[in-house]
Design brief:
The protein is α/β, with parallel strands linked by helices. The protein is built from twelve helices and 14 strands. The strands form three sheets. Strands 4-3-6-1-8-9-2-10 form an eight-stranded mixed β-sheet, with helices on both faces. A hairpin with a 5-residue loop joins strand 13 and strand 14. The relative contact order is 0.17.
Length: about 475
């Protein structure tokens, strides 16, 4: 029986990885994995953001179009699809465990452990690496969060992103690189492998939240991408999602910080692969590395993720599978694939019997040409916006159908020139694809929690929360 290791790196952009064509960011370990495996070049999320992706990846069932949404206690994101795995859907971990596998989850992604969530279901063991993003691990930081003197050590040169009042508080006891999250997650995974890799087949899922923002690459890695001594801008930048205004040099610094985070994650992918070799289990282990989505960093005028900005920097996934026999090594597959294909593919490759009803496909058969690739497009929802992409076009629209954007992927790969106005027939055709997948019944939600004043908007009345004053006044007015 084959072992399985699944590595999720949150917010890893495809265009920032060497094996996908990047020539300035160091990703030698991910590149080496791709050299021994298969790179998928048309991999996309089918529902966004973090939690909708992981629902599909956990079950093989599509999250699109995010029906049956109920705003749960502890949900500060308030996006349809951001909800627990439905009880009636078996998880990949449950199925592997049923077939005699030892199943483990090592994760620093805080959202999967939040109140009302259940993403550790089916794992024999699981470990939460605390402190990422707005994880309520310590009391929020007091004082000026953009003051670099509040950084914990000299290796922490700076920090760019949101939720810094929480992040800085969670970083205060950091001393060296081993305290950074990828080092913690892979370190815990290596320890788990030391104790369990020889005790029968295993499924190990590593869900590392980096390179998700905030970006705070260790200084020695950051210096590979910028001159830290010459930089004169803010070192700590507390961003907000949308059309953020950077001062001179700060956007370049932000890209350097993100690149540093990518290289940090890559370094620890190498540590994990070395551990599998050291334990002599790599030749009996399927290794898959995937991102949940990319990240917007001002390419289309905004920073961070917004539903109406489903452009390549957000939508293009890293999606790599290494067969233990290195079958199909160093090849590409251009089939349209997504996260709900992952459980089906890994179970099929490992010889696990699939549950009777499942949406995903075994993409490995498309790699080996055992079966013809039949998908002609990919679809996604980031409520309330929809996206569809085929070989020729990318199309975005809102659920009301009042705004449309169309891009020619061949002539305009970065999708900067909206040609919807002069191509109404093409827009209508692609819109029909989306509506057909929703059975012509698009979901519509009034996303306001009613009847629970303490949860109407979490932290609404907490003066330390980072909710904008306009939003705070709006919600208080509506009560």
């Amino acid at each position: 029986m084959l072992n399985v290791v699944l590595i999720m790196l949150d917010s890893l952009r495809r265009d920032h990885v060497g094996c996908y064509g990047n020539d300035w960011i160091k990703t030698e370990n991910i590149d080496a994995l791709a050299k021994e495996g298969v790179r998928f070049t048309n991999a996309y999320p089918e529902a966004l953001p973090t939690i909708p992706v992981r629902r599909a990846m956990s079950t093989g069932m599509r999250t699109f179009p995010c029906r049956d949404y109920v705003l749960a206690k502890g949900d500060t994101v308030m996006i349809p699809g951001w909800q627990p795995i439905p009880e009636e859907q078996p998880t990949m971990a449950e199925i592997f465990r049923h077939h005699g596998y030892n199943t483990a989850l090592i994760a620093s992604t805080p959202h999967i452990f939040k109140p009302s969530m259940n993403f550790h279901r089916g794992f024999t063991t699981w470990e939460w690496i605390r402190g990422q993003e707005a994880d309520r691990y310590h009391l929020p930081f007091e004082g000026d969060i953009e003051d670099p003197s509040n950084l914990p050590n000299d290796l922490s040169y700076g920090c760019v992103g949101h939720s810094l009042r929480h992040c800085l508080a969670n970083m205060q006891d950091w001393e060296e690189e081993k305290d950074w999250f990828p080092a913690q997650s892979i370190g815990a995974s290596a320890s788990w492998l030391d104790k369990n890799a020889k005790d029968g087949p295993f499924l190990l899922v590593i869900d590392e939240f980096d390179p998700h923002e905030p970006w705070n690459a260790p200084k020695d890695i950051l210096e590979q991408y910028m001159d830290t001594e010459a930089y004169e801008g803010r070192k700590v930048i507390n961003t907000t999602g949308g059309p953020y205004e950077f001062k001179e040099g700060e956007l370049e610094y932000t890209f350097a910080q993100y690149a540093g985070e990518v290289s940090l994650c890559d370094k620890y992918v190498g540590v994990l692969m070395d551990k599998l070799r050291e334990l002599d289990v790599l030749d009996n282990t399927i290794v898959m590395l995937v991102s949940d989505h990319g990240h917007n960093i001002m390419e289309h005028g905004i920073i961070h993720k917004l539903p109406d900005h489903m452009y390549p920097e957000l939508m293009d996934l890293v999606y790599i599978i290494r067969h233990p026999g290195k079958l199909e090594a160093d090849t590409e597959c251009d089939a349209f694939v997504a996260h709900h294909d992952i459980p089906v593919t890994l179970m099929s490759m490992a010889g696990i019997t699939l549950p009777p009803k499942i949406d995903g496909e075994n993409v490995w058969k498309w790699v080996t040409k055992e079966a013809p690739q039949t998908r002609e497009y990919a679809t996604c929802i980031f409520y309330p916006w929809l996206w569809v992409q085929n070989d020729k076009y990318a199309y975005l629209t809102d659920l009301d159908g009042t705004e449309e954007r169309l891009y020619d992927r061949e002539k305009d790969p970065l999708q900067m020139d909206n040609i919807a106005a002069e191509n109404k027939e093409i827009c209508e055709e692609l819109k029909k694809v989306l509506w057909a997948e929703m059975e012509n019944d698009p979901p519509n939600y009034d996303i306001v929690r009613r009847g629970h004043e303490w949860y109407e908007y979490p932290d609404l009345h907490d003066p330390r929360s980072q909710i904008s004053e306009n939003l705070r006044k709006e919600f208080i007015k509506d009560r």
